[in-house]
Specification:
Distance between the termini: 19 Å
Shape: globular
Radius of gyration: 16 Å
Structural class: alpha+beta
Main location: cytoplasm
Mean pLDDT: 96
Enzyme class: lyase
Largest sheet: 4 strands, mixed
Strand order of the largest sheet: 1-2-4-3
Pathway: Amino-acid biosynthesis; L-histidine biosynthesis; L-histidine from 5-phospho-alpha-D-ribose 1-diphosphate: step 6/9
GO molecular function: imidazoleglycerol-phosphate dehydratase activity
Number of helices: 4
Subcellular location: Cytoplasm
């Protein structure tokens, strides 16, 4: 079974086309107009071994907020579509990723219950045209639209680039673990019989 989700979403603020293949090889082609965000999405795909194509046109003359948040919405919708009824997936994933002096932890649950706990104090920064607080907005949009519980904790770090890079890499690795098919699982990983 091919686990792929494709979504097109057009609003007065953004026009986004995205395809996510869960069982990929880490290939990504990403164009959002926000260079640092493109870099983060490529790292997310590479370290999660997802194949990802993103073409986003947004109102960057205002700022990057709508483009980043709406990409999170579309990625979440594509992930939900790709996973379907979530049969056979491991459900939980956790990753610790060091990036030089930075150390980030992402733990998540493909639970169907959207929630984000974001414990990153060093978020207020600007990297290129990317405002650091947009990582939280992206993750919240992803969590809500994919039905994920996501906990992000920064355990160490001073350099903003390293901090956000560690978070996106950890997100990819944790999501890869959670979405992996385990042949021992009958149905879904829940005593309720549904996720």
């Amino acid at each position: 079974m091919e686990r792929v989700g494709s979504i097109e979403r057009k609003t007065t603020e953004t026009d986004i086309r995205l395809t996510l293949a869960v069982d990929g090889s880490g290939q990504a082609v990403v164009t959002t107009g926000v260079g640092f965000f493109d870099h983060m999405l490529v790292l997310f795909a590479r370290h999660g071994l997802f194949d990802l194509e993103v073409k986003a046109d947004g109102d960057l003359h205002i700022d990057a907020h709508h483009t980043v948040e709406d990409t999170g919405i579309v990625l979440g919708q594509a992930l939900a579509r790709a996973l379907g009824d979530k049969r056979g997936i491991r459900r939980y994933g956790t990753a610790f990723v060091p990036m030089d002096e930075a150390l980030a932890m992402v733990a998540l649950d493909v639970s169907g219950r959207p929630f984000l706990q974001y414990d990153v104090e060093a978020a207020a920064c600007v990297i290129g045209s990317y405002a650091g607080e947009l990582t939280e907005e992206f993750l919240r949009a992803l969590a809500v639209n994919a039905g994920l519980t996501i906990h992000v904790r920064l355990l160490a770090g001073r350099n903003a680039h390293h901090i956000h890079e560690a978070i996106f890499k950890a997100l990819g690795r944790a999501l890869a673990e959670a979405t992996r098919i385990d042949g021992r699982i009958v149905g879904v990983m829940s005593s309720k019989g549904v996720l």
